[in-house]
Write the structure tokens for this entry.
Amino acid sequence: MKLNTAKGEWYELFELEQERCEFKWSSLGTTCLVKMSGPPMTGGMRDAYKVFVHSENYRKAPTWQLSKLLVMKTHLKCVVDDMIEAYGCSREEANRRLCQKEVQIQHFGQVQTDEFNKQFKHLLACTLSVIPCCLAKNLATNEYCTVEKYLSGRFVKYNDNEGKEELVETGLHKTIAAFCHWTFWVTKYNYLILDCQGVGASLTDIEVAYQDEPNASTLSFGMGNHGELAKKQYANMHKCNSVCLMLGLPALEYKASFESGSGIVAGTDDLDELPDLDENSDKTLSYPRKSTAPLTSPQY
């Protein structure tokens, strides 16, 4: 294991907690992270760095930190620039909000995989999971990033954020394809989990296709959300496989949200803004529940 010659930098970690329909940011404490030697792994929107936990001062340790090797992810400059242009915010705010969105999306995915596994546990050959991640604030620069556990093994991309599925070959591929189908159907075509990728059944960097209201002043999900475009393309391209059929999922009959008047499933409108972490990291955010669908989605 080759470490960078730098001594590392201190970060404060924040976890998004949920109790029923209430969400809040909770500080876990601080940790010193050292970047591994070598260039980052660059994706479409973020750079990913392997980091080593040099030391830690946790009030509450992340339940998922099973080793000293983690992954730190930072947004590319072009993505931050797009956020600034679209929403007229400062660079610091854009960086923070983008990272908050990534944590939100991963949390959203965790809720959905848990419900999917629970509902179909007697039929599934594998258990899906979206790995959790934390918001991390650099105590020297005040810049934000996300931190999650390192997935060791062959990394596979199962579909993209525009609705295109990779070649469905294995039982795992079929299960993940069926999971995406299920998220679309169970939310009455409002939400669709896409961009599934990871090692085995452990997924990360997912995206959620959701159509914001026209001229919305806030971003419900990340900059990788292609909204109606992704939903339409997915509905047109998805071909039900043997797992879709085994789970009894109906064929997709999709109409655009604003055309069908299906409404918001999980109460993502009329919410208070999430407070600035520097001011109050433990303020609770709540929202009214508008559906019995197993879906929760705070808006920041």
